[in-house]
Write a structure and sequence with these properties.
The chain is α/β, with parallel strands linked by helices and 154 residues long. It is built from 3 helices and 5 strands; from the N terminus they run αβββαβαβ. A 5-stranded mixed beta sheet has the order 3-2-1-4-5, with helices on one face.
Length: 154
Amino acid sequence: MSIQSVQPPPVQRRRLQHDPVPTSTDLTPLLDMTFVMSMVFLVMLVLRPSLEQISIQLAKADGQRPTATDTPSNVLTIDASGEMVIRQQAVAGPQLAQYCAWLRDDQGCAEIFVACDPAAPFQAIATALEVIRETGINVNLLTAPGDRGRSEIR
């Protein structure tokens, strides 16, 4: 008969207070991040001059006030109550769509000018712009001359 020797299970060793604490820290991740960030900054430094040299052609103003002949005839005016007026006639949503289709098809005009009272309800303006956009007409917003932040329909 053979006697088998029984081994006790391995015991996990606990760290005691008198065990030495590791004195070195692995700096590899920190150095990797430093390298990556320095490469990003170098690339941005190289690309920055090319980003600043984008040419943009700005419109030039001649400084003259528009005359009566310069005023477009197809101006949609939205007053403080939300009423829409074109050529001194009040229009609603369906009439505005018909007018825009008439401008596009019969008159060959591809743009309409919109002038809004500052107190006009936003919903009326949004509805008008949506109707005009659906007919395929370009929208130009008119601004009042004078002080910034102040606008009046004249």
